[in-house]
Amino acid sequence: MAELSPDAVPCGPEAADGAVSRVAARAAAWREVEAEERAGLLAACARCVTAVAEEWAARGARAKGFGDGRELVAEERLMGPWVVLRHLRLYRKALSHPPVPRRAPQPDGRTAVRVLPAAPGDRLLFPFHEAVSRLGRDGAPPRRRRGPGGVAVVLGAGNVSSIPPLDVLWQLLAEDRVVVLKPNPVAAWQSDLLVRAFAPLVEAGFLAVVDGGAATGAALVGHPDVDAVHLTGSAATFDAVVWGVGAAERARRKAAGVPLLTKEVTAELGCVTPALVVPGRWRRRDLRNWARSLVGMRVHNASFDCNAVQVLVTARGWPQRGAFLDEVRRALRETPVRRAWYPGAEARFHDLVAAEGSRVELFGRAPEGATPWALVPDLPPVAGQRLFAEEAWCGVLAETAVDAEGPEDFLERAAALCEGAFWGNLSAVVVAPPATPRAALERALLALRYGTVAVNTWAGLSFALGSPPWGAFPGNPLEDVRSGIGWVHDTPLWDDVERCIVRAPFRPPFRPGWDPRHRTLEPLSRALCAWEEEPRVRALPRLAALALRG
Question: What are the chain's domains?
Fold first, then answer.
């Protein structure tokens, strides 16, 4: 296949009509493509993704100002090609051998199915990890029905390079729609790579890629042949698309209940992600390791992740709270600063720091174009704090303490704080040491109304794994969309999902890949990409060795 240049990707509003017309002409044909043939197309796409993986990682790192640093290129390799390859493999598996539901008992009797481990090798790659998808209705049919078909427009995210292709795959495979993808202008560097990575679908007319800004997006969304729209971005962008650009028009339309966009719309829009740190008698090593891991959940991708931990919730009566926060400070101090590459991030950082005043603690020397890390400790645990009400979208980490001493009281009060004070309902993290009372933990997990609740791991892992669903807790209305509407990923294609709960050990055998101290991320990321493209048992010992040495 000949290598395409960026010029091969049409650009601008004038390109919208042609792109929609091309895929619309193939919408009925896509509905007729059977599961085995779809699996074959995905296998061909996996080979194409592998062919461009190194260029993908290098370009992404350069676009984000990381230069040629091996660890940061490795981060981009994992965030892009590896995640996409894993999803392609799991979708192929589901199409070729539809999964049989593995029921998982729930404390409240609700129906749930196990979604991790999901494939051979998962028990070694993610040891002692498990995930369940809780279904919204007891006895609901677990297998997703055939999608409605038609034409979808995907308005892609600019922060993580795997998001646009994963949203495309969901529309194709779960909704049976052909797709026009418009990447965010921030991620225009990957447009031609996506054409090459998904060439089998592009050449068959089931996918088109168009570059451009807001005018191009408006032309696509408003096209009469488009049936559905999916976007990943901010709630402000969602409101502009659905309710109109001007504040007055949006307010008038919301009050009247008359949206500008009347087509089916789904979205993933971020969150102020809390991390509940359950008190107990922690070992000093646990304090250090979890401070590093939680800081990693903030600084990963220079903080431009929709699931980046933003608020640490601790217990005021926890005797080790001070020691834990000192370890958080140490982790921030020892983590290299990152370029504030997302547009507007520097101004937003300085505005937030100025607003919080003398309570802000800064870490690291920031050259031009970068910002230091910031910690804002001991925010009052009440609604109305700015860092509770909006995504910082920069390297600011907050901490608040609820009036509690023991784990039971803490979990109840912290869950209530999450419900009433923090914006969004996409993801939450709970760090629970082994002595945490099981009943209290389970009650808290049910009280945390988030699309993903991650116990002793990052919700970002759930995003990457593919078999768990990814999206906001169901029920957000168009008028108050919060973290979004609908699901993506969910490669087993279960129906009527309510939320996902991911669990990992408090003391994992491997250092997580988002930990800034990880020592083997570069070779490990390459090995993981090779594994997802073609799993081979003989590769597992090397993968395990690289993970253990990390």
Answer: 273-497 (3.40.309.10)
